[in-house]
Amino acid sequence: MNLFKSFSIALLSSLLLFFTSCEVDQETLNETTREQQDIPKDIIQKLEKAGFHTHEGLSKVEDGYVVEYDIFLTEEEIYELANQNIENNSKHYRTNNLVSGTRTIRVYVDPALGSFVRSATDQALQRYNAQNLRLTFSRTTNASSNDIRIMAASNTALDGSFASAGFPKNGRPHNLIRMNTSFYGGSNRLGNTVTVIAHEIGHCIGFRHTDYANRAFSGCPGGGNEGQGEYGAIHIPGTPTTFAVANSWMLACIGREVNRPFIASDRTALQRLYARTPPPVSPVPFYRFYNSSRVNHYYSTSRSTPGGYRYEGVQCKIYNQQVPGTVPLYRFYNSSAVNHFYQQSRSTPAGYRYEGVAGYVFRSGGNGRIPLYRYYNSSAVNHFYTTNRSEGNNAAGYTYEGVAGYVLR
């Protein structure tokens, strides 16, 4: 997502040996640092919580923010991503939102970008279509009826980046890719054009960077982790557990003449998310943690123990993707009372803030399903969830409040 900035000629000649995969203009970086001083602290904090790198490549645009040089997010999307808590510690990553259904995605190219970019777009779409996914890509000349628009943008508007895009929403791909006319269009013929377009389409359908854990892997100046390992990026099962593999099309940075067709693990990631026949979804552990000093129970599909909490084992199994018969189990948090609350209703209780979907549970009982009971201690202001009715009934000070949902052992 922080794809690609441009070195000045002087810097390029002196630093070529050190940064062969990512091109950055130092003057632009300095300007970016100055721009970030005007960005609200809560926006920066939420971006970091959602797993984004904010020390460079963050700028305010008219209707939102661009982060990591090439990802556009509205303020609403930033808040949504910050409230997700999903484990990720491996190579290929996706966002919490994907493109739904089997569909044809029509891609429009701004005529101002010229024939070379149109040809490169056709090649990028061919790369995706060769994977036989449930998403089919085609280029359209209809400027008013399309799913993704690839539009010309100035170097200033893109803060020196090669291109930018956003994430899917409501089951549809992000509808805009902006390409820098300082690099693309006119007589420009960069060797990375096909890969840049394929990369940005990757973001539009829900992919994060493969070198999420260490952007230095692809030569990004400053390197670093793009954020907390448990927020905003979900590991794609079946892909390598090393943090990055050379030549992936979703590496964070790239050189001007670098071309990255899909490698084996890229194809695995694409098939895992968008195969015509999706692989079966398996339940995952729902871990329980407890903060004794604050008297608060916390439950998550992530095994990572939050600060101040102790691990209390696997409470049950739920799903981290929706399957037939399941409904979301929403998580809320009351910071003044230090209490996490889980329920099937999206309606936020008074005094709480919404923290996203903790997982998916069954609405009713059935074969292999067991109740997840909810208890409440009004003195400690603590909700307690357990599949063991005896444990709940014997917990001093707790009152039974019913079944939060049905889960698996």
From TrEMBL:
Keyword check for Hydrolase: yes
One GO MF term attached to the UniProt entry: metallopeptidase activity
Pfam families: DUF5648, Peptidase_M57
SUPFAM superfamilies for the chain: Metalloproteases ('zincins'), catalytic domain
InterPro entries: DUF5648, MetalloPept_cat_dom_sf, Peptidase_M10/M27/M57
UniProt keywords, alphabetically: Hydrolase, Metalloprotease, Protease, Signal
The DUF5648 domain, residue ranges: 285-408
Keyword Signal (UniProt): yes
Residues of the signal peptide: 1-23
Protein name (Swiss-Prot/TrEMBL): M57 family metalloprotease
